Protein 1
Amino acid sequence: MTTATTDFTTLTGDYTIDTAHSRVGFVARHAMVTKVRGAFNEFEGTATIDGAAPEKSSVALTIQVASIDTRNGQRDDHLRNNDFLDVATYPTITFASTAIKHLGGVDFEVTGDLTVKGVTQQVTFPLEFTGSATDPFGNARIGFEGSVVINRKDYGVTWNVALETGGVLVSEKITLEFEISAIKNA
């Protein structure tokens, strides 16, 4: 049974992200007319939840950049090279929370340091608690979803091509999406 309780005290503990049931994705506008969606298939993360004092909670995430997947091998290879993410020099993207604020109900605001291509910027994004459950294997699970828009140029990801009709091939604004299922550590 899944519950979307607002009594978070029962959720206090350390958690590990279940990568098989989570998604770390992104959306970018292509040629000014459509959106391209992708994901990172390899990542790991942890969370420490203090249900009585959510501001004492924390989350950390490490993404393997080489695992980028937009369902197009040629595009993925281009994203891995120096024009974009330079996986040879910067193999990971990391996020470490610096503040968590409970906004009421199931809504939270997470602030932290996002590091892409060796550049660290502070980002704040809304995060919604989507529920808790005990799975068929006896694991206590929690779920969260959220997204944030960043400017890729702030992280040194500047490659682009001007279009004849105006605009550029790849948007500067990128939406990062998080759909997380985490299992409470024994």
Note: The chain has one helix and eleven strands.
Protein 2
Amino acid sequence: MTGLVLLIPLALLMGLLGLVAFFWALRNGQFDDFDGAAARILIDEDQPAPAEPRS
């Protein structure tokens, strides 16, 4: 029973900290671009090597 007196407020505090961290990330734009990272992997930024002339 005495363990619950410690664990319940601790769990509530950790949940509140998680909620505050989520709203902080939301306010700072962490969730603005959902498709950017998914599409960025498909973009090939490397230039192809020049073809060597055949002799």
Note: The radius of gyration is 25 Å.
Protein 3
Amino acid sequence: MKRIDTLLPGVFLLEPVVHGDHRGYFMESYTRSKLEGLGLTYDFIQDNQSLSAQAGVIRGLHYQLSGKAQTKLVRVLTGAVYDVAVDIRKGSPTFGKWIGVVLSEDNKRQIVVPKGFAHGICTLVPNTQLLYKVDEYYSPEHDRGILWNDPELGIDWPASAPILSAKDQGQPRLKDAEIDFAYREGQ
């Protein structure tokens, strides 16, 4: 597995080794020891899966407060997404900055979104399935979000008529969001 650094420290892409032939392919999508060898030492405790039936579905920007914050390891099983991570660590040199990457069943890339980052996706094709590992259980009391189209973030979502949940339509802007993450040097 190959680790690819991004412009946001702590957010990484992972590219698996894919063994393909005329029958299809085989790959290891998760091997704890290999991730540890890449410096990623998360204790994932839960898998989540979602299906979006249409292209243009936006889910996010989501995070949990620091007491129950989650690191996510996200991959696409079928279809494709534009995956976004936003730095929400107060005092960070990249606070409010974001990156967007395409994850797909074809490129088989994964993204590591650590604690202190909001996360969102936009489906690029119908019937897209996501699988993501988390290192903390879901906690409704700690569940928070940021408005997907906050003009101060300026995320360039690839959807002309996005499909959103009522919850995601009503999230606050970054400047009004409840955030309890603080940046620490070397983090």
Note: Residues 32-37 form the longest helix (6 residues).
